[in-house]
Design a protein that fits this description.
Spore Coat Polysaccharide Biosynthesis Protein SpsA, Chain A; alpha/beta; about 425 residues; 31 strands; about 25% strand
Length: about 425
């Protein structure tokens, strides 16, 4: 039976076109998105955020994928071009970049629904049976084939993937009311008083921003929405509330297929959540398993030498404890504790790095001390600089988050403005 189910799902995924909405800045990430869109922000030592929905598509058997970009997309475009060009066009497999092009009129994308609407002519050319719409800025591993199969089996016009969250957290999501069969009868975007689940008064069902549509049904709803002058042209604010009373909209609970419990999902949309999600990966058995050979996360990374740790004197020892260190790093007589270092980081003699996330191509000077910091790509930390020990002093030079995490960028250190790679 399991084998037959997998074959059934694979046929459905071959008839699916995935659209990844990757045009957001992600302003809550502050200066990390001054020069790159949120989906292009590095994550997990060697990946970009966009790699997770892209990998989910490939691992699910969906081989027709479009990435819809808009805000400062240069680094995103470069990454997708370099790392995701391995599909075979002659087999109708692709990962394409669809930048905002004013294809309909002189407007840029006004909302998530408008981004899809403005590309209807391209979508029609691919003639998919189903359309999978994804947010490009979340960290998770999900078999979309199971969701598409659920969509077909329940006879849905639209299916929404959902998480169980506490009522306070639900205020930041689109919250659904569902009946016992899983049909959505209510949907409110970021409500101040979220509706709780039927069987849990302390939990709510939150939309993940992952949708499956029957293609013809989606065409009709997008055209209708585009003709509405009062609409904000957004799936959560307009499309879903408009259709739930008239059509069959189903919820798909996102769960671990083996345990039946809530699966891993993170919105790394703030400096605090970004720092936390990165450092979670250092744990002995983190919820997100990057070493899972059954569900690999694909990416592009330049060919680099192994990480190197040099000097073994009593007062100058290159070492990393309870940490993850990526290729190209040189720990030269420095001490790294409970930190995640991305590629090509150099930590010089007597420097100490603790509870920190260091993005690629950072040089940390001799005797510098970093604690509870996020250091952006390309920074040069001067010799002897101390960050993360004096909140008042840090706030004068850098951005300090509500939980005391210090964000450091090259511009904050006085370097010329530059775009992020």
């Amino acid at each position: 039976m399991k084998y037959e189910s997998q074959r059934f799902v694979s046929r459905l995924t071959r008839d699916t076109l995935a659209l990844i909405l990757a045009g957001r800045r992600g302003s809550r990430l502050r200066d990390l998105t001054n020069w790159r869109a949120k989906p292009a922000v590095p994550f997990g030592g060697k990946f970009r955020i966009i790699d997770f929905p892209l990998s989910n598509c490939i691992n699910s058997g969906i081989r027709r994928v479009a990435v819809l970009s808009q805000y400062k997309a240069h680094s995103l475009i470069q990454h997708v071009q370099k790392g995701w060009g391995f599909l075979r066009g002659e087999f109708n497999e692709f990962v394409e970049l669809w930048p905002a092009q004013q294809r309909v009129d002189t407007s840029w994308y006004a909302g998530t629904a408008d981004a899809v609407y403005q590309n209807l002519d391209i979508i029609r050319g691919h003639a998919p049976e189903y359309i999978l719409i994804l947010a490009g800025d979340h960290i998770y591993k999900m078999d979309y084939g199971e969701m598409i199969a659920h969509h077909v089996e329940t006879g849905a016009d639209m299916t929404v993937a959902c998480l169980e969250v506490d009522l306070e957290s639900a205020k930041a999501f689109g919250v659904m009311g569902v009946d016992e069969a899983g049909r959505v009868y209510d949907f409110k975007e970021k409500p101040q008083q979220p509706q709780h689940m039927p069987d849990r008064t302390d939990r709510a069902l939150a939309s993940m921003g992952v949708y499956v549509f029957n293609t013809q049904f989606l065409y009709e709803q997008l055209i209708k929405d585009a003709d509405s002058p009062k609409s904000e042209h957004d799936f959560g604010k307009n499309i879903i509330p408009e259709i739930i009373g008239k059509y069959r909209v189903m919820a798909f609970p996102y769960r671990d297929t083996q345990t039946g419990t809530q699966a891993y999902w993170r919105d790394v949309g703030t400096i605090d959540s970004y720092w936390t999600a990165n450092l979670e990966l250092i744990g002995v058995t983190p919820e997100l398993n990057l070493y899972d050979t059954q569900w690999p996360i694909w990416t592009y990374q330049e060919q680099l030498p192994p990480a190197k740790f040099i000097f073994d004197d009593d007062d100058r020892r290159g070492m990393a404890v309870d940490s993850m260190v990526s290729g190209g790093c040189i720990i030269s007589g420095a001490t790294v504790r409970h930190s995640l270092l991305y590629s090509n980081v150099t930590a010089n003699s007597f420097a100490t790095i603790e509870d920190s996330v260091i993005l690629p191509d950072v040089d940390i000077g001799c005797k510098a001390r970093l604690k509870r910091v996020v250091v952006d790509q390309g920074c040069r930390i001067p010799e002897g600089m101390v960050i993360g020990e004096d909140p008042e002093e840090d706030a004068r030079r850098f951005h300090v988050s509500p939980n005391g995490i210090v964000l450091v960028t090259a511009e904050m250190l006085g370097a010329p403005l530059h775009y992020a790679r």
